[in-house]
């Protein structure tokens, strides 16, 4: 410590302010929670300054499908483009700043993209809004300001998460040269992930406090590398999705995907096309009473398929693990699309190629009809009981 800044008051009075350590790590964490602008989104992206939606403090990070959270991330934010931003806070006096915190953050990154599901993220955001006494739908709508549909925003966030398009922020009062070099190295090597440090220094004077943020890690090499692969969300449709399937998986996969989408459209399922910057997708789901949309299965541009177990968790009777296992077993036993039974709470992909067989295709369609029947049956029973 020991740095100084000067505050010019009333045009001629110069007030000295001295760099001062934070009394506790929790104080810095609380400042970030209450004032996300300290993360210096204008320095991270001067052209389109990042804005931050706080999901929660102490976000659990599991290390397996059946884990509720082995670790706790200090803060999870998501920016206006749906990029999950993982924040870990340490004071410079903590000797772990350069060692454990880097390994810890990489643990968080590796496991979050694998095991987080969007349902848990939405529930955490809802809980955070409840603590603040605000309505989560109004909070999200105000944050998005009409730029993105709220439902699509969560879809984009999930797509970014699965593609590893996340941002890792190391936040401390002083970033030593050793940590700065590590951050720069990681940021140059990791793509599409972004790794940065944010130094938030505190200066105190007679009565005032001033906080000054500075971002490190944005070397020209890292900026150039990420510019090549970066992209804004795009609205996919059937034609563009099939074109990508053609490029990535070939003619047979195009035929299967087209067959699946055609069947879903003609059998009163709701199709929603994704907004991924690089990968197209189409989600087969249902519009349920109350304006709820339930995602069942997503087809992506690589010619693979993924049950939306992480979203089905929020829709009875599929909030029961047993029901999700039944769906998984039907897909495996009857359609020959086999998923890991340990992954009925999260997202996993499998090729659609078994559906080239007409028997497997018809069995797949029957599984979707079975899911619809169970969802609609629950809503009928719930409506009868409430009436």
Number of helices: 13
Q: What oligomeric assembly is this protein in?
A: single chain
Q: Report the C-alpha radius of gyration, rounded.
A: 24 Å
What is the strand content?
15-25%
* Unreliable sequence segments: none
Q: Note the main sheet.
A: 8 strands, mixed
- The dominant shape is elongated
**End-to-end distance, in Å?**
67 Å
InterPro entries: tRNA_endonuc-like_dom_sf
Organism: Methanoculleus submarinus
GO molecular function: nucleic acid binding
Protein name: DUF4268 domain-containing protein
Brief account:
With 387 residues, this protein is α+β, with helices and mostly antiparallel strands. It is built from 13 helices and 13 strands. The strands form 2 sheets. Strands 1, 2, 3, 4, 5, 6, 7 and 8 form an 8-stranded mixed beta sheet that branches. A 5-stranded antiparallel beta sheet has the order 9-10-11-12-13.
């Amino acid at each position: 410590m020991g740095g100084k800044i000067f505050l010019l008051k009333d045009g001629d009075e110069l007030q000295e302010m001295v760099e001062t350590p934070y009394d506790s790590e929790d104080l810095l964490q609380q400042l970030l929670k209450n004032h996300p602008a300290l993360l210096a989104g204008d320095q991270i992206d001067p052209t389109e300054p990042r804005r931050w939606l706080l999901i929660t403090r102490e976000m659990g990070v599991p290390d397996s499908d059946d884990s509720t959270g082995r670790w706790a991330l200090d803060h999870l934010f998501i920016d206006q483009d749906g990029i999950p931003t993982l924040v870990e806070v340490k004071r410079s006096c903590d000797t772990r700043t350069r060692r454990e915190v880097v390994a810890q953050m990489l643990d968080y990154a590796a496991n979050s993209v694998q095991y987080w599901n969007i349902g848990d993220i939405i529930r955490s955001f809802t809980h955070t809004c409840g603590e603040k006494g605000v309505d989560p739908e109004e909070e999200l709508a105000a944050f998005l300001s009409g730029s993105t549909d709220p439902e699509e925003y969560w879809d984009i966030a999930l797509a970014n998460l699965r593609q590893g398009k996340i941002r890792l922020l190391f936040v401390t009062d002083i970033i030593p040269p050793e940590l700065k070099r590590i951050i720069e190295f990681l940021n140059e090597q990791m793509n599409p992930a972004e790794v940065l440090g944010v130094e938030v220094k505190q200066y105190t004077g007679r009565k005032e406090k001033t906080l000054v943020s500075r971002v490190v890690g944005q070397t020209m090499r890292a900026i150039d590398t990420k510019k090549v692969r970066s992209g804004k969300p795009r609205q996919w449709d059937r034609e563009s999705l099939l074109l990508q399937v053609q490029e990535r998986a070939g003619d047979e996969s195009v035929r299967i995907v087209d067959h699946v989408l055609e069947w879903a459209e003609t059998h009163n399922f709701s199709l929603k096309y994704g907004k991924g910057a690089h990968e197209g997708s189409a989600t087969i789901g249902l519009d349920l009473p109350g304006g709820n949309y339930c995602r069942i299965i997503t087809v992506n541009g690589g010619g693979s398929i993924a049950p939306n177990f992480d979203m089905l968790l929020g829709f009875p009777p599929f909030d029961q693990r047993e029901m999700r296992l039944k769906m998984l077993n039907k897909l495996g036993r009857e359609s020959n699309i086999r998923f890991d039974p340990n992954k009925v709470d999260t997202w996993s992909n499998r090729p659609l190629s078994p559906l080239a067989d007409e028997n497997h295709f018809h069995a797949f369609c029957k599984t979707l009809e079975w899911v619809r029947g169970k969802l609609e049956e629950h809503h009928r029973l719930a409506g009868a009981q409430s009436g």
